[in-house]
Amino acid sequence: MIRLGTVGTNWITQQLVDAAAASQQYELAGIYSREAATAKAFGGRNHAQVNYTDYTQMLAQGDLDVVYIASPNSLHFAQALEAIKRDISIIVEKPAFSNRREMTAIQAALAQHPKVKFFEAARHVHTPNFHQIERAMAGLPTVQGANLTYMKYSSRYDQVLAGGRPNVFTPEFSGGALQDLGVYPVYLAVALFGQPETVAYFPTLIATGADGKGLAVLRYADFDVAINFGKTSNSTAESEIYGLKDTIALDSAGELTHVFFRDATGQEQNLSEPALDNPMTPEMVDFARILQDPDAPQNVADYQRWLEWSLTVNQVLFDLRVAGNLRFPADQN
């Protein structure tokens, strides 16, 4: 069994812990929270072996194989680096790091600790429906771009409207719509189309100075990908990938719950796989496969592909922020 530690006790950490349990490949060896009461409650609810209020202590004493980091975005880098230096693999919630400088430092640390694996928790590109999209795209004679949408109203925006500054909406925590929901369609675009040649971003700023929603354009050699995302309103619009007369339609560029292929005659084929009980289970199964047998040829190839995606997404997110004139304090460190 893979000994797992966690950082963070919010809903996404709970979902990952549940996915780890469903995979039957992990044991929850330790959980970290800054607050003792929160650590005790989360650890007890999930039968963690030990609860910690000191992150360094968990890394030193937990005998961990891998740690999942779901703290505010601006804290990912320091926590990931500390784990790598202790030869502990890392699963970092997306977006993994705030800028290219942090990613470059992580790459250097990984080179010095070759047994350590770094996974970015981009759950949707590990799901069966993502693989259905890949297969459908392989059958298109040509690709002419895409419109990708992922927009959901955040309850924490109510706090902003009331004068608050929740972490997810503040530059000091490397927050905002691009870093939160925007990363999903950016990841999808990178995984399907590769690295764009140029990017543009038109953010809508909110009272905290962060972007509440925005429109991004990724320009490739032969087509563009338009990405519409936000946390201050809702959208039910489909996402689409364009061939010539054929279209691949998705319910959402983040959830990938339904996938359809529509041909020139208007006929529709439902490509959707059965709904997942937990959308994070496929990624946890994938990560376990690499951690348990890192030298198997297919595992080597898959890990390298995921790592390249992560590096490219990090660069694209940074380039989009520069294009939209969005800066984080983390950029100055």
UniProtKB/TrEMBL annotation:
Alphabetical list of InterPro entries matching this protein: Gfo/Idh/MocA-like_OxRdtase_N (IPR000683), GFO_IDH_MocA-like_dom (IPR055170), NAD(P)-bd_dom_sf (IPR036291)
Molecular function in Gene Ontology: nucleotide binding
SUPFAM superfamilies linked to this entry: Glyceraldehyde-3-phosphate dehydrogenase-like, C-terminal domain, NAD(P)-binding Rossmann-fold domains
Pfam families: GFO_IDH_MocA, GFO_IDH_MocA_C3
Annotated ranges, domain Gfo/Idh/MocA-like oxidoreductase N-terminal: 2-116
Domain named GFO/IDH/MocA-like oxidoreductase: residues: 156-247
Coiled coil: none
PANTHER family associated with the record: PTHR43054, SCYLLO-INOSITOL 2-DEHYDROGENASE (NADP(+)) IOLU
Name under which the protein is recorded: Dehydrogenase related protein
Organism: Levilactobacillus paucivorans
